[in-house]
Amino acid sequence: xxxxxxxxxxxxxxxxxxxxxxxxxxxxxxxxxxxxxxxxxxxxxxxxxxxxxxxxxxxxxxxxxxxxxxxxxxxxxxxxxxxxxxxxxxxxxxxxxxxxxxxxxxxxxxxxxxxxxxxxxxxxxxxxxxxxxxxxxxxxxxxxxxxxxxxxxxxxxxxxxxxxxxxxxxxxxxxxxxxxxxxxxxxxxxxxxxxxxxxxxxxxxxxxxxxxxxxxxxxxxxxxxxxxxxxxxxxxxxxxxxxxxxxxxxxxxxxxxxxxxxxxxxxxxxxxxxxx
Length: 276
Known about the structure:
single chain; alpha+beta; 7-stranded antiparallel β-sheet; globular
């Protein structure tokens, strides 16, 4: 029987049903909703995987060691007002929830997760980035095919993604899609800070990813999906009346080099921590 580490090495991802209890999922959802309720938007930042907005957005670029809120592209009317309630318009919260909010800290730093990271070969795991993703009913946008190591690059490559389904994820509400074995194709590009300000993509390999071979990962609430940093994956739009809340946590190995030109930076006073 193939163990989890071998299966992860073969296909580049793992699907672990029932990893988190329903009560813990609900508690994290409730805390995220509290954070949104307390958010008074002075800066409106729209999350887009097409990067036009994100590339020149200081609010985004300075979010590595704080908690920031990002709106859905389809949340606004032409005059800039919200089409619906703020709580139904947020795309995600990022990127240091796991360090700055006690509820997210407890969820992110469990013995089970520490053991899993070790099992998958991480020597000194550091929790670098976290995101709470809402995938709102009807307006939850698609996320284009990408590799997490594009955004969280280390030498050698060590990025590891933990994606928790806090609600059932289906084809209708925008579940993940992954390319089995796609992590062996190598890194296609890097998202880096440009010398003159803002960011840019540095293309490393322009060979197209065979997206037609991606498979949907429909999973139940409480499932943990583990993603290799080089694995191409995406998610579809939410065309349903049901949300698809998820929590995403990204780790890197402290034994690797984290280049200065990565987009995500943290203040020297707040370096990434491990599970303790």
